[in-house]
């Protein structure tokens, strides 16, 4: 289980997709060292001794040195076509490549979704980008992705929402989804036993900074001063544009 993966990245020109050691430093905010395959560093997961980011577009054994995967190279080509308006770019992108939007990849170890094959746990990517409620899964460690033929069922889903944080909650043997409603400054909590059908549980907010959009929510437990018998839960919220806030409290599932 990987908790609290943190990447620090300067946003660069979206036309740059491959790993580089030097770039044109005249480009404002363009990093000269860091690896950034495309868009935000999102879709993070650890599986089979490797770290992956951007839905499997980049991989690393030590979280320092990264390489583009074959999937990542193909994804970058298609995004490049989309950006330049190449022929049939959008129609090619939709079925083959995950979105550039933020979200979560989880490993469905017990195959609760039923999407795994031959005893191998599927990777489930939950994006919910721009209201699509899309679920995409992989049975070959992100070499290829398959779009689930039905959208996820998200009750109480009116308004603008996206960028779900999803994790397994062991005490209740269920999945938890935490997602921000950007325009009304609320965070809503859902649960599921199969990652496909979700039940609304509760909401938080608006509290604190409410002048911007609430997006890219994170939610995780931390031990107070290293004491594992004293756990607090941290709700971190990206406050657009370019800010953030967090709340500390308790979580009972």
> What assembly state would you assign to the polypeptide chains in this entry?
single chain
Helical proportion?
A: under 10%
Residues in β-strands, percent = 35-45%
Average pLDDT number: 81
Number of helices: 2
The biggest beta sheet, please? 4 strands, antiparallel
Q: Which spans of ≥5 residues are poorly predicted at pLDDT below 50?
A: 1-23
The strand line-up of the biggest sheet is 1-2-3-4
Elements, N to C (H/E): EEEEHHEEEEEEEEEEE
Overall body shape: globular
Which structural category do the helix and sheet elements fall into?
mainly beta
Count all strands and give the number: 15
From the N-terminal CA to the C-terminal CA, the straight-line distance is 18 Å
- Rg is 18 Å
Describe this structure in words.
The chain has 2 helices and 15 strands. It has helices spanning 70-84, 89-96; strands spanning 45-47, 50-53, 58-60, 67-68, 104-107, 123-126, 135-138, 146-147, 161-169, 174-181, 186-192, 199-204, 213-224, 227-240, 243-249. A hairpin with a 2-residue loop joins strand 14 (227-240) and strand 15. Helix 1 (70-84) runs antiparallel to helix 2 (89-96). The protein is globular, with a radius of gyration of 18 Å. Mean pLDDT is 81; it is low at 1-23.
């Amino acid at each position: 289980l990987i908790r609290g993966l943190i990447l620090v990245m300067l946003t660069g020109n979206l036309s740059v997709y491959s790993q580089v050691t030097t770039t044109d430093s005249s480009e404002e905010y363009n990093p000269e060292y860091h690896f950034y395959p495309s868009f935000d560093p999102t879709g993070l997961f650890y599986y089979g001794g490797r770290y992956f980011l951007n839905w499997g577009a980049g991989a690393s054994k030590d979280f320092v040195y990264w390489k583009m995967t074959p999937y990542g190279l193909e994804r970058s080509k298609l995004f490049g076509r989309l950006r330049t308006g190449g022929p049939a770019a959008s129609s090619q992108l939709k079925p083959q490549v995950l979105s550039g939007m933020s979200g979560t990849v989880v490993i469905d170890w017990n195959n609760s979704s039923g999407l795994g094959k031959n005893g191998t746990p599927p990777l489930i990517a939950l994006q919910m980008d721009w209201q699509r409620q899309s679920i995409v899964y992989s049975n070959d460690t992100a070499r290829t992705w398959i779009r689930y033929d039905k959208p996820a069922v998200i009750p109480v889903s009116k308004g603008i929402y996206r960028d779900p944080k999803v994790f397994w909650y062991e005490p209740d043997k269920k999945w938890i989804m935490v997602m921000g409603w950007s325009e009304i400054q609320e965070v809503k909590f859902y649960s599921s036993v199969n990652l496909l059908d979700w039940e609304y549980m509760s909401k938080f907010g608006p509290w604190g900074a409410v002048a911007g959009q609430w997006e890219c929510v994170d939610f995780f437990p931390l031990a107070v001063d290293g004491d594992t018998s004293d756990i607090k839960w941290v709700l971190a919220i990206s406050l657009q544009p370019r800010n953030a806030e967090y709340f500390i409290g308790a979580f009972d599932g």
